[in-house]
Amino acid sequence: MCLIVVGWRVHPDYPLVVAANRDEFYARPTAALARWPDAPQVIGGLDLEAGGTWLGVTEKGRFAAVTNVREPGMAKGLLSRGALTRNFLTSGLSASEYVSQIDYAQYSGFNLLLSDCESLVYCSNRDGQPRALAPGVYGLSNHLLDSPWPKLLQARERFAEALPGLPDESAFFDLLADQSIVDDENLPSTGVPIEWERLLSAVFVKSESYGTRASTVAWQDTDGDLTIHEKSFGPFGQPLQSSVISTSV
Questions:
Q1: First CA to last CA across the chain, in angstroms?
Q2: Which domains can be identified in the chain, with CATH numbers?
Q3: How far apart are alpha carbons 43 and 47 in whole angstroms?
Q4: Which end of the chain has fewer CB atoms within 10 angstroms, the N or the C?
């Protein structure tokens, strides 16, 4: 997952709102948004290579999403970062309890956002102690929370503008579909070749082998019910399918 914007307790009717893009190599096997066969209370996509997920929710209103920290050349962690989200979604721990028992050294660089309906917690093995977040709009890409990367700043601004339109999610998908490339002088420097910096500077990334595999918009109402809508894509951004699942009865 390479872009997540979250609105936490800033909308009077929807205390949690999420817009996110997952960027990955197209060759990595993936299952689209669905209830998990081995844990039907969990709804999300599934990484079929390592068994975890980039973003998911549960029937009881729990939410989890993870991004990697872009740090080329660093040794790979022993465990998949997708296990961080899977384990929270299938556990009964509060968000604060869960982050306190993570063995951070076992994973490559990550950012993790967790909600147990009562709190939204951020943690990273590259950014000090976990912390519960105050009401507000937050953004993550492949650095730390609210790092001022151009695409993240733009996405956060457009997200805030889209909030009053809920439950119409079209403005959120519009922001997630932005393919604008950032000018070279404004690109972050993350250690990858300049061609990759340019490619990855777009909110919606597309190429032959790597790009945005899924765009997801999710929102939770004041009763705790979640609606999650995922659009999936293939090489060069070709649309593949669209799925909507709600936890409301």
A1: 29
A2: 3-178+205-246 (3.60.60.10)
A3: 13
A4: C
Cβ atoms within 10 A of the Cβ of 59, count? 16
What pTM was estimated for this model as a whole? Answer: 0.95
Q: Residue 153 carries which side chain, given as an amino acid letter?
A: L
Q: pLDDT tens digit string along 60-103?
A: 999 999 999 999 888 889 999 999 999 999 999 999 999 999 99
Q: Tokens 């306190």 appear where?
A: 100
Which two structure tokens, joined as six digits, stand for 171? Answer: 């403005």
Reported confidence tier of residue 193, pLDDT bands at 50, 70, 90: very high
* 97, two tokens: 């309890």
Number of residues in the chain: 249
Encode pLDDT of 200-220 as tens digits. 999 999 999 999 999 999 999
